[in-house]
Amino acid sequence: MSSLLEVQRRMAEAVMAPLTRQEGMRQRAADGRPMAKEAAAYIKPNPRLESFERLEIYNRQYWFRVLDSLAEDFPGVQAILGAPRFRELSVRYISDCPSTSFTLRNLGGKLSGWLEEHPEFLGAQPDLVRDMVRLEWAVIEAFDAAERAPLSAEQLENAENPHLALQPHVRLLELSHPVDDLLLAVRKRKSARKLPARQLVQTGRQKTYLAVHRADYSVHYKRLEAGEFHVLQEIHRASPLSEALEQAFAGSALPETEQAQKIQQWFALWMSLGWFCQV
Amino acid sequence: MPANRFNGFTEYGIGIGLRIPHYRHILEKKPVVDWFEVISENYMVDGGNPLAVLDQILEQYRVVQHGVSMYFGSVQPLNREHLQRLKTLVRRTKTPWLSDHLCWGSVDGRYTHDLLPIPYTWEAVDVTAEKIRHVQDFVEVPVVVENVSSYAEFHDSVMTEWEFLNEVVERADCGILLDVNNIYVSSMNHDFDPAVYVNSVPTERVAQIHIAGHSRYEKYILDTHDHPVIDPVWELYAQAIRRIGPTATLLEWDDKIPSFEEVHREAMKAEHFLQQVAKMPPALTAEEPVLEVAR
Ligand SMILES: [Fe+2]
What we know:
Oligomer: heterodimer
Number of domains of chain B: 1
Largest interface: A-B, 48 and 46 residues
CATH topology of chain B: TIM Barrel
Order of helices and strands of chain B: EHEHEHEEEHEEHEHHEEEHEH
Bound molecules: fe (ii) ion
Helix content of chain A: 40-55%
Helix content of chain B: 25-40%
Structural class of chain B: alpha/beta
């Protein structure tokens, strides 16, 4: 063996290679080399275990760890797809997008994007799965994102040209299904089994605007009105407030006085939740 | 050595690993605990509940940081974001020392999230010692390295694990977190005498000791941290502190975590050994079997 780097590359490749159906190490590497030979090239056997079997311990541990982590982060997706399909998805996803972070917290960060390139893993209700992936990732981000000092009512009023920003823990989602209700139902159950088809079909299409945010150190989902969502989104995009408000009622039949009233109510609510901070 | 430059000259007693299922119990009941060990990576975040709980713990307890992903033995450069977040956390916890494992686990930017064994070569000694020095310089607290459990050995190795440990800590001038359960697990998996390992450790560098339970399979032992400590591991612990002196000790319990009281009770068994060592005249050495195992 020529160098430590080479051993590490070879061992990492073996450890991160998918397991067999029986959860053992595959007999052959991706390029067809026999794994028994590959393992024996750098790992010593002992009187009880072949080199292959010793390497296999690490191969199994790797997959048990990362699969558990992903299942823990996406219980809603697993409940929609069922454990076997979720597992197939997970193995392919982690093979394509292995962790590149020192923490497993970030393991699912590329799942939403990856699924766009691999729609074959989305199952019978693709948009429902897409929505759930986005919601569950937003929950992970909202859980430990930063919280800045919230803007006071005075600061909001006195700022001549308010540079508003949303708290980093607030995530805005425009979804095609009410997956917030579905996720609450999933979290209430004890088992990780697939949700009954009836319940999934009942979760019909319905435009759903959500803010996933943190209050008192736990994550909440708050339904938003369409206009409310658009104003928040424009603020998040750092558009000037006047533009953001215009956007909210574009094409709306609501009389101007009522529009103003609504805007006031929304701002009062957002302020009470401490959603604004300075840029 | 009880207090030395590798544990910030502290005299910490028996600690408990801070784990999520125990948060509520600890914050409500405020049990008497010498110190808590926290997994650094769990608190290297920007905000939210993890840091809020940590701050509450810090108001009442001493905290020591233990890392799981610095990978001193990985050949490629350290991750800058990781180092920066770690340093921020060190400032927050005021940890008197910082531990992580003598292992590798990432290559080409990909993380296995496992503690993989290092081939015991001179190249690996160089790589590992340099990384440890780098981290120690950056975070500005003593770094101590922990021996891991392993299930494989390399053809490339030219020395024993304890020789490798000795070489690395000398070159890096760092401390040791001696995990006596890991020594036991590896000794069973690789057929060596764990007492020889314990007796070869440079006592003046030991900052902390880990004890833990494991799982025995037909052909190997896995370091699972999901059981009480077994008697042979307590015996190794006794042997270690007889040589080293009363040392900050921590029980690891990371899976199938029982109640806080149960973990605490198990950890406090170490007290029995620490007291016997404290009573012993300094001349007694490891060769004299004066300690019995607590049942
Ligand atoms: Fe340990």
